[in-house]
């Protein structure tokens, strides 16, 4: 692969990358904002070409039938935008709360997150959970208060809620002129000037923006302007001013206001991400050794997706590049097996759209097509061996036995179950007692079961029957505790495919009584690699 760039350019090219994801509660406007960002970066001509919902359904990123039927985004994709000479990699996260495990994995591959709030609702449960995942990883977070074109809460109350409940100091980059529901524009906290917004028909194209100095803003917007500047001064006086170091240390969160559906404030957000989000830095391996960005190529798989292209029944592994320069065609080593891995079929993938990717740099995401040997969490490297930490796994709360409806299809069934397990669609638990024909599926949310059975039938040709189990709690356990737990009513031990022993209990009370018979430390939280526990 010839390229004009020498590998010594890697640090320079990495410094021009921003890799981020949007975290939000469903309906806060993530899909709308993604479209709006793409529109502003001119990746698409008119908003509506990225995600399909409502009238916009059927477009690029919702490829599973189920997603289309429900209007939700289950699968993740990567959108690459270029702003001036900065490359933004926006990693899409599934919108539905049942897929938070998937979202966690995506968050482990980003350098920054945009936390999107609905102005009327403030912090919602899913936002809190996802923010927590960012906190554990010390990921810097930019806050966006969306839907300012609709009646909502007072901006100061929203900032107060962020400070109180998240323990990070919100530092406004801009402040809305006009109450929620009457969004005229924003005061720029740095310059003190105003950007006035005007609607375009249907909000499908970039909104009109006019820069006003303070005098002109006061003349045009009178009381609204004065209220906005007074509030902003109040925050400035209390020290709520953006400080890049504090933001990168995840102690503060810069705040912006938007109405994504009419493209108000979106250009400002794009500018903030480009200017403030950190570029990819050294990535810690499993021993905690930082791998410099200009080292040999290394990366890890944070997502595996099959069936994105029905006609090809393919399987794509998404790898975040952590160090070095990726060139299509290079032969890498699979860190887990030590086997060589060919990268001839590398692509950039967004929804149904794919392009062959010839080179990539730290922070970029490479889609490796037909990567049957790759699983979520695997490391690929060039040269000396590198192992990146395993990805976090969520504590499942729903459990069901799954069986093939027809015994004649058991081969297809087994193949499908293996695939779903490797992709992390559900966790698969087995035990000698239940046998390999009746594995237990474990999920964070019940919709994961629906996706699993849908795919078993449509992709693998094996209709499946589910039998829900009455368990609600999972804990890691030890081989010595196994016989004790297994003998109890309302409890059972199974083995996850990574070898972890998992004890299931109907409820906390049952778990408590069993635990009292075991040596200390026999039941452990289902910690992920980051020490997260969703139970
Ligand atoms: P999600 O991906 O976070 O789940 O949210 P999505 O973008 O689908 O937005 C959820 C709903 O909120 C959509 O309305 C969308 O149009 C609306 N929305 C998003 N941003 C804004 C905004 O800034 N202002 C206002 N007023 N509404 C916004 P819907 O009725 O569910 O769907 P649709 O038919 O309008 O697409």
What does this structure look like?
The protein has 535 residues and is of the alpha+beta class. The chain contains 13 helices and 31 strands. The strands form 6 sheets. Strands 18-17-23-14-15-22-19-20 form an 8-stranded antiparallel β-sheet. An 8-stranded antiparallel β-sheet has the order 27-24-26-25-29-30-28-31. The protein has a 7-stranded mixed β-sheet with strand order 2-3-1-4-5-11-6, sandwiched between helices. Helix 2 packs across helix 9 and helix 4 runs parallel beside helix 5. The N terminus and C terminus are likely disordered. The structure holds guanosine-5',3'-tetraphosphate.
- For the largest sheet, list the strands in their spatial order: 18-17-23-14-15-22-19-20
Largest sheet data: 8 strands, antiparallel
Radius of gyration: 24 Å
Provide the low-confidence segments as ranges.
1-7, 51-64, 66-76, 528-535
The secondary-structure class comes to alpha+beta
Determine the N-to-C terminus distance: 48 Å
Please give the share of residues in helix: 25-40%
Strand content: 25-35%
User: What is the arithmetic mean of pLDDT?
Assistant: 86
**Strand tally:** 31
- Tertiary shape: globular
- Bound ions, cofactors and other small molecules, one mention each: guanosine-5',3'-tetraphosphate
Helix run count? 13
């Amino acid at each position: 692969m010839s390229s004009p760039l020498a590998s010594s350019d890697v640090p320079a090219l990495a410094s021009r990358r921003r890799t981020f994801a949007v975290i939000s509660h469903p309906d806060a406007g993530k899909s709308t904002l993604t479209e709006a960002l793409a529109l502003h970066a001119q990746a698409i001509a008119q908003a509506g070409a990225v995600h399909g919902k409502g009238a916009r359904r059927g477009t690029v990123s919702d490829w599973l039938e189920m997603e289309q039927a429900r209007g939700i985004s289950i699968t993740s994709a990567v959108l690459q935008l270029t702003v001036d000479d900065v490359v933004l990699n926006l990693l899409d996260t599934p919108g539905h709360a049942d897929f938070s495990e998937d979202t966690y994995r995506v968050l482990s591959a980003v350098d920054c997150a945009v936390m999107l709030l609905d102005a009327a609702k403030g912090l919602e449960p899913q936002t809190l959970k996802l923010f927590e995942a960012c906190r554990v990883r010390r990921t810097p977070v930019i806050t966006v208060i969306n839907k300012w074109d609709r009646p909502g809460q007072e901006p100061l109350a929203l900032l107060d809620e962020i400070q109180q409940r998240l323990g990070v100091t919100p530092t406004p980059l801009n402040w809305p002129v006009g109450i929620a529901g009457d969004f005229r524009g924003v005061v720029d906290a740095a310059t003190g000037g105003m950007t006035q917004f005007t609607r375009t028909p249907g909000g499908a194209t970039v909104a009109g923006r006019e820069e006003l100095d303070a005098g002109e803003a006061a003349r045009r917007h009178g009381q609204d302007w004065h209220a906005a500047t007074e509030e902003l001064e109040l925050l400035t006086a209390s020290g709520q001013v953006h400080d890049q170091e504090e933001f990168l240390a995840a102690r503060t969160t810069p705040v912006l206001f938007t109405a994504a559906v009419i493209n108000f404030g979106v250009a400002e957000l794009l500018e903030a991400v480009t200017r403030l989000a950190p570029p990819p830095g050294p990535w810690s391996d499993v021993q905690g050794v930082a791998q410099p960005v200009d080292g040999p190529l290394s990366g890890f798989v944070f997502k595996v997706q099959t069936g994105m292209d029905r006609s090809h029944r393919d399987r794509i592994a998404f790898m975040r590049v952590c160090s070095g320069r990726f060139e299509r065609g290079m032969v890498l080593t699979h860190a887990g097996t030590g086997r060589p891995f060919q990268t001839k079929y590398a692509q950039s993938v967004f929804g149904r759209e794919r392009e062959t990717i010839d080179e990539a740099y730290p922070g970029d995401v490479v889609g490796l097509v037909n990567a049957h040997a790759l699983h979520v969490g695997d490391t690929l490297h060039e040269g000396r061996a590198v192992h990146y930490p395993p990805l976090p796994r969520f504590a499942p709360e729903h459990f069901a036995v799954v069986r093939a409806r027809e015994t004649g299809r058991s081969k297809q069934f087994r193949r499908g179950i293996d695939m779903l397990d490797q992709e992390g669609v559900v966790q698969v638990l087995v035990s000698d007692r239940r046998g390999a024909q009746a594995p237990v599926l474990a999920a964070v949310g019940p919709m994961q079961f629906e996706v699993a059975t849908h795919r078993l039938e449509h992709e693998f040709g094996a209709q499946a029957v589910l039998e829900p189990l009455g368990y609600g709690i999972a804990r890691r356990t030890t081989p010595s505790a196994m016989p004790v737990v297994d003998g109890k009513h309302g409890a059972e031990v199974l083995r996850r495919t990574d070898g972890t022993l998992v004890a299931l209990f109907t409820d906390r009370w049952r778990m408590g009584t069993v635990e009292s018979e075991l040596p200390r430390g026999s039941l452990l939280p289902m910690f992920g690699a980051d020490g997260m526990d969703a139970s």
